[in-house]
Every structure is written in C-alpha cells, then in structure tokens.
Design a protein that fits this description.
CATH class: Alpha Beta
Helix content: 25-40%
CATH superfamily: Ribokinase
Mean pLDDT: 89
Structural class: alpha/beta
Number of domains: 1
Number of helices: 10
CATH topology: UDP-N-acetylmuramoyl-L-alanine:D-glutamate ligase
Strand order of the largest sheet: 4-1-9-10-11-12-13-14
Largest sheet: 8 strands, mixed
Radius of gyration: 19 Å
C-alpha cells in the first residue's frame, strides 16, 4: 500500500496539534571518549546545555517536523526564581513550542540531568528531580485537550499525565504513551492509551521478560492499545492482530543518541495525526530518530521535515538492503551545537 501523502503545510493553522504531556528537564551534557570507571575521572572533550525530557523533546520534534505542539508539564517556579525552568522555557519558546500549559510550582526545582555521551554516541544519564514535583496534577484538563488532535504522554509523571489522558479519551482522541519509565504491566496509563511505544529497557523492566515479543504479549493481556517497542539499532517490533511484526531501522553512524527515542515518539505521533498507518508512522519515526543520532546536541539535533523527507527519498532509491531497506551509512556531523541553551 502506498504511504499517505504528507501535507505540505509546515506548522500553519492546518497542521495537526499534538499535546505533549510529561517531564521537562534541563540537560547538562558532557562529551567524553569513554564513560568514567568506578571511582575514576575523565576529562570532557565538550560541554553544552540543552532543554530535555521526554515530552519536551517530543514537542520540539513535532514542531520541526511541521506540526504544532503544546507542552504540558510541571517545572520549578516561580519565574525569576527557578533559573533552570526559565532557561528551559525560553529555549522551547525559541523552538516555537507552545509552553502556555506548563505549570510553574513555587518552592520546587526544575528537573536536572547530568549526561555523558561517549565517542560511539551512547549516553549515560543521571537525573535529579524533587520528588514532590511528581505529585503535581494538571489544571483544567478539558481545556488542555480541547484543541488537540492527538495526545502524546510520557509516563515519567503519571499523576500529571493520567488526568490528561482520561480527558483525551473522553473526547475520543488517540493517546500515545511513551513507555519510558519501568512500571507494571497493569499500569492504568496503558489501559487509557490507544498506542504505547516502549523502549526495550522499560519493557524488560516492566514485564520481567528479556524476550521483547513475550513482553509485548504480556502487556497485551491488560490493554487493547497498539503496542510497539524500540530497541536501539535493532528493528522496532509491534503487535498487529496478535501477530508480531517488525519495522527495520536505518543503518547510521551515531554520534549522539540523546533524545532519539523522544524524536521517534514525536515523529510517530505526528505521522499518526496526519493519517499514516501505525507501521508507516513507526517508519517515519525511525527516520527522525536515525537522523537525530547523526547530530550532536540532544534535542537541538532533531531534524526538520524537509531533511527527513529527503532522507526517506534517498533510502527509497537505494533498495540494496534486506527487505528493500537501504543500508546507507551516514557520516557524523561535526561542529558546534546549534540551538543549545545560551550559557550566558
């Protein structure tokens, strides 16, 4: 079946609006040759600061891909007191993400991550968050979802995400859940979702199954949602009418995997809202994530729509790989990190 034609609109009034709900973080990123050993020290070869968090990164992806994104999530506050929250929101607004639904909570601090990226593009993340921020609940959820065409929620702040997902389902909206934080197979968010896309790490920890297909089938016993799992350089797996299917990812040379899963979720959600099937949307999301991995900068390395379409066209022209999937190796991009948060 030929893919549905993607609209030419680039973020205008006719573009789908995706409500992204969940965690928002300030990322402090160190580039190292190798990760530090226990009780050891390494010298960083580079450093940058960028907005992060599953929901925030996905919102950036949606906008860069031509959609409209509204971001809802709790941060420290108020403005002028919590500097990290101020810096994150300013960066997101420069990306044209609508942050009017973000909630500043007096007396709390915006979540902060220290991230190491090695020479192979792999990352190690340590996140600090005030535990009280996880208990913040959204206000006026019916108004939040009123203008949305689809909701994308991560499960890092389930108390915040759940009421939004419930309101969305009351409007018969599709709800895509980013299964990022280990939980339980009976998690209420999975029952609320129309689609759940797990990371392999989350699915294994949630189900206790190291076999990813078995993990998907275990979760399927508790929800009617479409279920898929991404697994880094390996194929994306999903269930269709009880049968296991796969979507090949792209063979790229990674320099920075930070935010790749979030880019995949943002691309998947937007493609669904634009009328793609689940398999087509996963393929589109995989292209977004693959291109992001060739670029340094976390969410600042997220590609634009024209770049993704050019990449997919190039892949379609090269049918040398298994199953008609190209195996072009992309050279890593070097140079400065664009659109990272100004340190001044």
């Amino acid at each position: 079946m030929a893919p549905a034609e993607m609209p030419r609109d680039r973020g205008g009034e006719g573009a789908p609006q995706i409500l992204c709900a969940g965690i928002i973080v300030l990322d402090e990123v160190f580039r190292v040759e190798d990760f530090p050993k226990a009780d050891g020290k390494v010298e960083a070869e580079g450093f940058f600061v960028v907005n992060g968090g599953c929901a925030a990164n996905a919102a950036v992806a949606v906008v860069r891909l031509g959609g409209r994104a509204v971001l809802a999530g709790p941060l420290g506050g108020p403005a002028g007191v919590d500097d990290n929250g101020d810096r994150v929101l300013a960066a997101l607004e420069r990306e044209r993400v609508d942050t009017s639904a973000c909630q500043r909570v007096a007396g709390l601090a915006t979540a902060l991550s220290a991230i190491f990226i090695d020479a192979r593009g792999d990352r190690t993340i340590v996140t600090y968050r005030d535990q009280r921020i996880a208990n913040v609940r959204p206000v006026n959820v019916d108004a939040l979802v009123a203008g949305a065409d689809l909701v994308l929620a991560d499960n890092r702040y389930p108390e915040f995400a759940r009421p939004i997902c419930e309101a969305a389902r009351r409007r018969n909206l599709r709800v895509v859940v980013d299964g990022d934080k280990p939980t339980v197979a009976t998690d209420p968010l999975f029952r609320l979702a129309s689609h759940v896309v797990f990371s392999a790490e989350c699915l294994i920890a949630t189900t206790g199954c190291s076999d990813l297909p078995a993990g998907l089938k275990l979760v399927a016993c508790h929800t009617d949602a479409f279920l898929a799992v991404s697994n880094g350089r390996n194929d994306i797996l999903f269930l269709e009418n009880g049968s296991l299917r796969s979507v090949p990812v792209f063979n790229i040379r990674a320099v920075d995997t930070l935010g790749a899963g979030d880019a995949l979720h943002g691309g998947f959600a937007l493609a669904l809202a634009e009328g793609r099937s689940e398999a087509q949307a996963l393929r589109f999301g995989a292209a977004v994530a693959g291109l992001k991995c060739t670029r340094l900068g976390g969410s600042a390395g997220t590609p634009t729509r024209s770049e993704v379409e050019a990449f997919l066209a190039e892949q379609a022209a090269d049918r040398s790989g298994p199953g008609g999937v190209a195996t072009t190796v992309l050279a890593p991009e070097s140079g400065s990190v664009e659109n990272a948060i100004d340190l001044e």
